[in-house]
Amino acid sequence: MVRDSLDRRTLNRRLLGVVLLALLLKMLYLPMSSFERAALPLLALLMAGAAASTYNVTVPLRTLHLTTLLGAWTYLLGSLWFVLFRVPTELQLATLSGMGPWITVMVASHLWLLGRQDSVPLNVLGLGGVTALLLTYVAGHGGWTSPIVGMVLQTLLASVILLAGQHSAVLRTLGNMRRDLLGGGLPGEHDPLTGLPNRHGIEDVLAREFQRRPEGLSVAVIGVDGLGALQEQYGLGFTERLVAHLSRVTLGVVRDQDVLGRLGPDQLVMVMRTPDARAARAACERLRVRIASRPLEGVNLTVSVGVAFHAEHPDPEALWQEAQDALVSVQSRSQNRVALGVWQEASYEEPQDLGGAQQALPA
Fold it and tell me: Do residues 335 and 304 lie in contact, with contact meaning Cβ atoms separated by under 8 Å?
């Protein structure tokens, strides 16, 4: 089980502490209804328990989020029931005006805490509960003309619009991230199998980045080991699935500022920025081990990588060619290796060959 980071736990603990402080201040200094006098202490105990649970690393944060959100919704729906069915008509608007905005805040918090997909059931539960209470009130009090009905309807409408806007913004952000990651908007067409930019698009990226700031620029050419033999054994359909699998695995580690593309049937290329040649090689070593640890249909895929780091190269073509030459060199000697280009060979000691079983360098 992957545990949540300590930073996330600390952040959640602080947020719960702020919520708990606000509840305590309300109980101490603000007027409360009979419902609040009974329900607020219970809600405060729930928040205190959730805050304390953040110290227990075996309790997932998602469980704490669901617990606190369900507790808060129980309190809000109970408050709405109290306003609609227990508060005198002349006091309903004033009472609801202080509670209504928190329904919208609760709806917004689902996406913040649970994400786009996991928040949907809680959205339905919360807004469905508000709608059910409203319909019950309308059925028992003679229609839709009451001002309190209008206020609750506006709260529901605002919540729905907020949800639609949130989900639209998330989808647009994810789309932009994917477009940028895949080189969207770059000149040239994309590879139909992987969706990655083709050689022309990557060459344009490299030329633009080289002109902007060549220092720290690295090129890594990733070659599939023995793709021809795999095609003879398993067929063209399998090797195409294998290349698509390789692109997905590689995309899983590509940073936002890096660009990944496809050179040919058995090669990918990545343009990235690193502090030095050692960091460029370490990044490719981690990628090599990651790929080797993710077989497809029982077949272990390995890659060799040629890396070039800018070191007074006269133009981007020289950097590109060095990375390709490094790949050809390493694949002619062995497989499942990472090799630096000739510009760094004299200053970087080649690690001992462990027969393709090198350990990934620490992240």
Answer: yes
In a 13 Å sphere around the CA of 75, the CA atoms on its Cβ side amount to 24
Which residue range(s) make up the domain with 16? 6-180
Sign of CA dihedral 242, 243, 248, 249: positive
**Helix residue ranges per DSSP H, the chain:** 6-29, 34-53, 61-85, 89-97, 100-114, 120-141, 147-181, 199-212, 227-234, 236-251, 277-292, 316-333, 342-345
Instruction: Give residue for tokens 């007027």.
Output: 31
Of 299, 317, 295, 297, nearest in space to 308 by CA: 317
The one-letter amino acid code at 175 reads G
User: If you ran DSSP here, which 8-state letter would residue 49 be given?
Assistant: H
User: pTM of this prediction?
Assistant: 0.53
Are residues 145 and 279 both part of a single domain?
no
Who wins on pLDDT, 341 or 188? 341
Residue 215 DSSP SS3: coil
Q: Are residues 140 and 232 in the same domain?
A: no
Question: Distance between CA 357 and CA 335 in Å, rounded?
Answer: 11
Of 231, 356, 355, whose CA–CA distance to 293 is shortest? 356
Comparing 163-167, 218-222, 298-302, the range with the smallest average pLDDT is: 298-302
* 174 in the same domain as 25: yes
Last residue of a domain, one of 116, 148, 180: 180
The answer to the question of residue 361 being in a domain is: no
Strand partners, 272: 218
**Residues 101 and 208 occupy one common structural domain:** no
